[in-house]
Amino acid sequence: MTTNQRPATQWTILEERLQDDTRRARASIAKVRLPDGVEFEQWVLRLQAAVMVAMVDDDLRVLLMYRHRFVIDQWVWELPGGYLDDGENVEAAAFREAEEETGWRPRSVDPYLRFQPSVASLEQPNTVYLARGAHDTGAAPDVNEAEELAWFTLDDAEAMIEAGKIVGAATVATILKLQLDAAKGRL
To answer: Which of 15, 44, 103, 104 has the fewest beta carbons under 10 Å from its own?
Structure first.
């Protein structure tokens, strides 16, 4: 394949009709052509970028929040995080979200994992930052965000994934990457 040639398996968006546009989300219907010529329409959702923070202490425990997610009507454990404010730097958002939601202030944050949660019909850049250590500011966690906070070993967090207590893509992917990095001595 030459650099100017399109891959034979690439799908083509012929048009995209905006259906709804809000502060945090744009919903549209895309008319798509497959490589074999078949055309169809599909809903596409484009969401504002999100940031999460994996606060890990010196004993390789991770701070998780217990909260209710109304969309799936389930209580789950997850990393703190949320949407970036308009024009906000991603690293600044990591510090802000961690402290606002948990009352813990990371000592530092470093980019750790980037992903898209559901690439078939959803666009939402997600960035997870790794915070090695944090201090308790004494502030209560945001009542709208967390029912409870707790530090978990990576083994315990992995078992929580298997038990369905951690279901969010960002937290699942991050816990598994932390496990892998710890096993390889990279954490």
So the answer is: 15
- pTM of structure: 0.87
pLDDT at 3 over 90: no
Gap between the Cα atoms of 105 and 111, Å rounded: 16
The torsion region of residue 81 among left (phi > 0), alpha (psi -120 to 50) and beta comes to left
Report CA 83 to chain centroid distance, whole Å.
9
Strand partners, 41: 31
pLDDT, one tens digit per residue, over 16-47 is 999 999 888 899 999 999 999 999 999 999 99
State the Cα–Cα distance between residues 156 and 140, nearest whole angstrom: 25
162: its two tokens = 């298997």
Other Cβ atoms closer than 10 A to 129: 26
Percent of the chain with pLDDT over 90: 80
Measure the CA–CA gap between 115 and 100, rounded to whole angstroms.
23
Q: Judge residue 79's burial from the number of C-beta atoms within 10 Å of its C-beta, 0-12 exposed, 13-18 middle, 19 or more buried.
A: buried
The amino acid that residue 5 corresponds to is Q
Nearest alpha carbon to residue 133 among 52, 59, 51? 59
User: How far is residue 89 from each of residues 47, 48, 83, 92, 107, measured CA to CA in Å?
Assistant: 17, 13, 11, 5, 17
